[in-house]
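pinging the channel bc i need a second pair of eyes. not urgent but kinda urgent?? the chain im working w is below, pasted from the shared doc
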Amino acid sequence: MVEKLKMIWQDAKQLKDERGLTLVELLVVVVILGIIAAIAVVAIGGIIENSKKDAMVADAKQMVSAAKLYVASNDVADGKVIRFVGTVGTDELDAKNMIDTMKDPFGETYNNGVVYVSKADSKYTYKVWLDGAEDIGTAATAAGTIASGDLDKEDVK
């Protein structure tokens, strides 16, 4: 019994003599955690930016789909502009009621949203201009719009 008490006493004494982490070890751990946090913040920032661009491209594709529905039920001449967002010009078609209000992922609302329709023979092609805090295209013209088949997040500028 006395032997067991001596062993317990020695074990307890050894535990008291052991020290915790040194200051250098703690600093190394803190530095490593700081580096990991910095990498994570940069990576998450890039993911958020890409998701905003993807949302804007999805809005543009939604406008093209709505324009296709409009063209399917209405005769649309070559070079017509179908406006979904913004002030309708004199030679533009008003289609604001075809899409719910779209929110600009980079800001509040879009300033302009149009689809430029070209007709060759009986085939239509569609180009998009979406103007907000960031833009897809530059104007409601054939040269200022982006072809609907080529839309991707690199077009968001």
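so Residues 23-73 form the longest helix (51 residues). and The chain has one domain: 2-155. — does that match what u expected or am i reading it wrong
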